[in-house]
Amino acid sequence: ARASAGRTLAPQHVRMVQLEEVPTDGGVAAAAAAAAATGVSAEDFAEAYRRLPEAVRQAMPLVTSDVLETNGPDALPEGAIPVIEQTIKYATGDTYTGETIGTIRHGVGVHQCENGDVYEGEWRDDLRHGEGCMTFARGLEYKGSWVRDKAEGDGVCTYENGDVYDGEWKSDQRWGWGVFDMASGDSYEGQWFGNAIEGKGRYTYADGAYFEGEFRDGRRLRGTYASADGRVEYVGAWKDGARHGHGVYHETGRYKYMGEWADDMRHGAGKCVFADGVTYEGSWADDRYAGRGKLTTHEETLECEWVDGVAEGAGTLAATSGETYAGTFKGGVYHGVGTWKGPEGERYEGHFVQGKRHGKGRCVWADGSSYTGDWTNGRRHGYGVCVFADGVKYKGEWEDDEWV
């Protein structure tokens, strides 16, 4: 943009140079040709400056108004840009007071919006750029670094509800490393991405509990959660804020679980050791035994199929007393066909109902005697054959464990 011909510059005004959009090689040498400007208005100068490539503008030295007042217009080096303090009133009702290049806000100044918003700080090329504080009428305040009208770099933002973020910014978003103190008492220190908690960090709750690990889109992804009193700890994977995937959970006085999780419940393969020493290892669904698994207590070991936390289907039981069972279960007790052995050598093969011998079955006692026949509620009842230890045999009806 060239100065208009035929205009004269008032003697008291600073001498300006003609500005040309000339490619540069890392400097201002070819960016401006020295010539006496005639009659260049502030608006014309601003438009000429605005048209320059950014690299050229940034390379030009700036001379502030106080330097000019002290040393006079001749203090302006050839190719330099004068920065003048003034107040600009806009048609919108906004006002700006501070340093300018023509009508371009450039340097340090205060812009007050008609709606009550205020920015005080550094400007470049009519944009907030450098250090500054933006206070919104609604109560939000940002104080820190700006790049081309965006919060970028280090800055502190105080929100309307009392939350405070102190950390890195990019394009008006929390991005990088920062500390977020919430009015609720919760706090977070760690990485941010796209205005969301993302990456590594530590979230501390108001009650003292914390989570430390990796976050994705503001939610826990992988790491350690511990309650304030230290009684509860979980180390493992998360999804949508819930334990999900492989993890180890320990709650003092209750149990320790190592295995798979889904939606905050034990789900999949895992081992649980309870506070009383009982253990279960196997498959889980919705926080209950489900599928194949082994339950070990102080008295017995039961390995079988489980449904909703109850033994169902084929399985085996071995008790510390010497009792064993191999067969089917229902509702947690012997039910169906199975083989039971007692600690004294007694052996029963046959049908069970609700944990008792019921239906057809054969029992052999330790002394060699046996009974083959009908059973009801754990007693010989109906037709059966009994062979005593001395070889005597009885065939006939039985009632309530006695022959009739």
Secondary structure topology:
Layout: E1 18-19, E2 32-33, H1 42-51, H2 54-59, E3 62-64, H3 65-71, E4 81-89, E5 95-101, E6 104-112, E7 118-124, E8 127-135, E9 141-147, E10 150-158, E11 164-170, E12 173-181, E13 187-193, E14 196-204, E15 210-216, E16 219-226, E17 232-239, E18 242-251, E19 255-262, E20 265-274, E21 279-285, E22 288-296, E23 300-307, E24 310-319, E25 324-330, E26 333-341, E27 347-353, E28 356-364, E29 370-376, E30 379-387, E31 393-399, E32 402-403
Parallel strand pairs: 3-4
Antiparallel strand pairs: 1-2, 4-5, 5-6, 6-7, 7-8, 8-9, 9-10, 10-11, 11-12, 12-13, 13-14, 14-15, 15-16, 16-17, 17-18, 18-19, 19-20, 20-21, 21-22, 22-23, 23-24, 24-25, 25-26, 26-27, 27-28, 28-29, 29-30, 30-31, 31-32
Pfam families: MORN (PF02493)
Keywords: Repeat
Your description of this structure?
- It holds the Pfam family MORN.
- Keywords: Repeat.
- The chain has three helices and 32 strands.
- With 404 residues, the chain is mainly β.
- It has a domain of 106 residues: Histone H3 K4-specific methyltransferase SET7/9 N-terminal domain (Single Sheet), CATH 2.20.110.10.
- The strands form two sheets. It has a 30-stranded mixed β-sheet. A two-stranded antiparallel ribbon has the order 1-2.
- A hairpin with a 5-residue loop joins strand 28 and strand 29.
- The longest helix has 10 residues.
- The radius of gyration is 43 Å and the shape is rod-shaped.
- The N terminus is likely disordered.
